[in-house]
Amino acid sequence: MSNSPSSLLYKDELLELLATLARPIDFASKNNFAFLSMVKDFESFTEEILTALRGIKSLPKDISEQIDKLVESFSGFDALSDDLKKERLLRAVEVIGFIRVFLEGGEGVAPKSAPKSTAPAPIVSHKESSDRIKKLSTPLQYLKGVGPKLSERFSKVKNLNSIEDLLYFLPIRYEDRRDVRKIALLEVGMNATTTGEVVVAGPVQYGRRRGYEVVISDGKGLLKLKWFNFKAQYMTRYKQGKWLRAYGMVTAYGQQKEIIHPDVEFIDKDDAATVDIKPSEAIVPVYSKLGNLHQKTIRKIIVKAVEDYADLVVSGATADSVRERGLLNIGEAFRVAHSASAMKDSGDAEDIAVAKRSLAYDELFSLELGLALKRRAFKREGGLTLKSDGRLEAKLRGALPFKLT
Fold first, then answer.
1. Distance from the Cα of residue 187 to its chain's centroid
2. Are 305 and 140 spatial neighbours (Cβ–Cβ below 8 Å)?
3. Judging by DSSP bridges, how do beta strands 222-227 and 256-260 pair with one another?
4. Of 256, 244, 250, the residue nearest 192 (C-alpha)
5. What is the pLDDT of residues 137-164, one digit of tens each?
6. Which of 30, 45, 63, 122 has minimal CB crowding within 10 Å?
7. pLDDT at 115
8. What is the Cα–Cα distance from 251 to 262, expressed in whole angstroms?
9. What is the rounded CA–CA span in Å between residue 391 and residue 369?
10. pLDDT at 214
11. pLDDT tier at 258 (50, 70, 90 boundaries)?
């Protein structure tokens, strides 16, 4: 396998699709397949993922053949008996494992500019593992900055109930804010970063709707910043003469350029002349919506969770397997995936890709290990032996009008 950009691209896509496929398999197999009967329409669910897998271009022949085996495993799945379903799921796990090993263990797996893997966490005792799991299971409301009301929103909208759930709530994309533009060069429809001095600020009335507007200038152009959802006490910081850096989608009302609900950072006037941006503000993770909760609030909460809890996650993968594949230990993977400050200027996209591969690898490794143990227990499970003294058998034989062969 080559280490070309195209090959790296299909690796990331493959691993993400396989991780999506692995989740229902993991659920169905919990507690020795106790939840198998609860999984409905499994065939139709997997069909979409398998179609996407088959649609990936330029796949090596070995992987294409394994994907065909996955298709066979889930063909007619819903109509099978429970025993056959178990066999098919175990077979699917083996295939997923083969593809994962092929991708991560083959030639040129780790990108050349991948971040150096941090030292893998030492093996922890059973007691320490239990203690860590208990801490990670802490209800979300007890994380600083959350509380009962906000935790209820996380649970209702995204089914995020514990701190561990929040760690696995990964960004859907990342915004690059390093390209700082003059106001006059802003184009409608683009996401952009610009700087300016506050010229005027205050509440406004739009019919029955109340809003807040700030007009900034960089000496060459004017830009209006608008808020419709805001707290009045927070808006008093927008004072005339202050300089700020704003990011958001540029729109227009009449001939006036504006950004609605921008991300704002106050800066010194001297900093307005430079494009230097703090690492934490340069490439920003964006999460799927949680009602009207602002992205900055979501990021702040998740950064706190990562800082306090990421290193408590116990990896299912061995330290050697992580190191050999040029991956990150799980704590570092969470930090890179969630925090822009953990990335390198030279390879942001690849750093993120390695972090996501590390998390996907850990998830698949744990799934395969768990199912392998269940399969071993399933095979070792003995049948029920029925013993008799022979009298009933003799009567049965005597009642037959023929001799048994």
1. 32
2. no
3. parallel
4. 250
5. 889 999 988 889 898 989 888 889 999 9
6. 122
7. 47
8. 11
9. 48
10. 93
11. very high
Indicate the angle between helix axes 330-338 and 295-309, nearest 10 degrees.
160
Are residues 77 and 43 in contact, defined by beta-carbon separation less than 8 angstroms? yes
Closest CA to 272 of 216, 328, 194: 194
pLDDT in tens, 311-327: 888 887 777 778 777 88
As a whole number of angstroms, the distance between CA 36 and CA 358 comes to 28
Place of tokens 């533009």: 181
Q: Quick one: which of 237, 240, 235, 259 has its CA closest to 181?
A: 259
Lowest model confidence (mean pLDDT) among 186-200, 237-251, 328-342: 328-342
Q: Which residue has the tokens 């179609």?
A: 51
Cα distance between residue 19 and residue 266, in whole Å: 40
Let me know: does 291 contact 156? Beta carbons within 8 Å: no
108-118 tens-digit pLDDT? 333 333 444 44
Residue 149 CA neighbour count, 13 Å, CB half: 2
CA–CA distance, 232 with 245 (Å, rounded to integer) = 20
Using DSSP's 3-state secondary structure scheme, residue 200 falls into strand
- Mean per-residue pLDDT, 66-80: 85
Q: What's residue 107's pLDDT?
A: 36
First to last CA, the chain: 60
Two tokens, residue 346: 């030279």
Beta strands in 71-190 (DSSP E): 173-176
pLDDT score, position 376: 72
| Res 177 pLDDT > 80 | no
Q: How far apart (Å, rounded) are the C-alpha atoms in residues 109 and 103? A: 7
| Residue 369 C-alpha from the chain's centroid | 21
Q: Which residues pair with 332 in a beta bridge?
A: none
Does this model's pTM top 0.70? My answer is no
Distance between CA atoms of residues 7 and 108, nearest Å: 10
